[in-house]
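dumping this here before i forget
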Amino acid sequence: MKRYKVLLMTFAAACTLGASSCVNDLDVTPIDPNIQLPAEVLNSQEAYERLLAKCYAGLACSKADGPHGSQDDISGVDAGFGQYMRALWNMQCLTTDEATCCWNDTGLPDMHNLCWTTSNQFIVSMYYRIFYQVGLCNEFIRQANANVAGLSDADFPKKAEFIAEARALRALSYYHAIDMFGNVPFSTEANSVGSDGPSQISRADLYNWLVNECTELLAANSALAAPGQNVYGRCDKAFVQMILAKLYLNAEVWVGQNKYAECAEVCRQLRSEYPKLHDNYAELFMADNHLWTKNQTYNGDEIIFAVPQDGIETQSYGATTFLVFAAVGGSMDAASFGISSGWGGLSMTKDFTSKFDADNDSRAMFYTAYGAGIDDYLVFDASEGESGYKSMKYSNVNHDGSAAKANGFVDTDVPVFRAADAYLMLAECAKRGGATEEEGRAALNDVRKRAGLTEVDSYSLQDVLDERARELYWEFTRRQDLIRFGQFTTGDYLWEWKGGVRNGQAVKSHMNLMPLPPADINANGNLSQNEGY
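structure:
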């Protein structure tokens, strides 16, 4: 086992060297660069599979040797808030009405206030995580194609499958890049290690590349597994369908193209593949939520893709460990969440929680003991930390009430894509002319019925946005949704401290995109900063 840990650390170093100029800036340097190169040990399918595991682990962990180790994937990025899923949550949720945080880390209040600068460490962390992950996948594809040990088809029968999975993971990170940063550095396995910094690709060209990449991975002759047919926690065609649906859904904002009919068609396919939502919403966010996936033997099949977590084997201070621990504090009963004590810090705004019918909506999982008055909500002062409604959505207990493996970290897997999201995308496409009103209403009502709400005979686009808020809060979608509906930077919808004032105000529209780190621009003459920064 130790041999493979060293192998993965070495692979990470090699990938860092080939990913982007960004990894050499802000003291972001390869870790353990003098260990044996991957090419020297890639002599079996098992070795390649363990290297592929590193591509997946890049979403789950920040260090090769555990949360207290010294072997960070990349230095210069905090291993806690810089963990991929936690960094993504900061970008997509903390910047909106969904979440607030009373911690005073430099740049953290600016995220919710929408007044960040180009050097904001939380934005920088997300940027580097994305392109480190792209580098990992590029290097895996490069090494697998090179097959330096000359493995035969019999010795390496899953070569095409592994490469397809790495391409799918790379597409996920480029999807995050196009959403948050727009025009970004671009490289694939065709770019040689040690070459000059990558060229900058336009948002439109990256969109076209991603659509083509997803289409190829979904083709009948693709080696990628059919929906629900891969090992749990690994990519399949439904994973890629979700990325493609998201690309089409946001095409009007990103590239000025109406692709709602195309989005609706993908979502129809997903709905046929995942025809039933799990009965109990809360169980989707518990310690044994892996049971509610299509390729498990339990009676649920809603989670399309999750990043696995394990309180003993897969530990970090990001992902669901962060979402459980940081939401619990003060007078809350930590034991009921499967932990010994919480960190406190995270709250929710009154503008967001007021969207719920708390008496009937099973998704309204809030701790309200701190009150609902405006002065009880968002306070960016650690001394006043426990304020506002607290989210009780994620927990570290099993659905039958039994204890998880450990309470220092959590077992709860991170749901990245769920079928309910595809249902709501179909409902939105119907209101935007891409599907029939009847099928959109049916999809919307399936989500509402599971939540304990009455069915609707008609609905508006705003109803869809509000339903997405209730169904998908703290699941990395809110910022993107608000931008698509024209409510993120504008004055059409305000929440506490948007724009840095208590009652909220509009901000400049260039903040619909995040800035590229100045150090990366300085190091790579091919890059230009996003407009407005």
